[in-house]
Amino acid sequence: MISKKMQEAINAQINAEMWSAYLYLAMSMDATDKGLKGVAHWFRKQYDEEMQHAFKFVGYLGEQLAKVELKPIAEVPTTWCCAKKMFEETLEHEKKVTAMIHALCDLAAEEKDYATANMLQWYVNEQVEEEASAQEILEALEFVGEDKAAFYMFDKGLAAR
Ligand code: FEO
Prior knowledge:
single chain; 5 helices; mainly alpha; 79% helix
């Protein structure tokens, strides 16, 4: 069994993961509206990943016989000026999620909750990847600059995700 405090903290994280999913789905839809097929595809995949993150926590609460409480999901923005802005916001958001996961790790350590600490290691590693992929895309966009042909190739590359 996990503590009530840990149960509540994981429920809050489920909400945060679902908010992330909602954010990336909004980015995908805005990219579709802008004709950026590859960017739209990349964010649709990112939406799927975030839902998997949420469901992995749901599964863990189930294993621990702890109640899942789904709270309302806050509104997300609906438009961005360009792909660069979307990925900048993605990187900033993922840094915040990393801090949330680390706070859960701190709580698990404080409570000597070894099972949760062990489960959270997957998320710690996942966050390293999440930040790295957003960072890599931003670096690629720096090379692209204002070059329309290069942006076309960049967008095509994202469609391969
Ligand atoms: Fe679920 Fe992108 O962190």
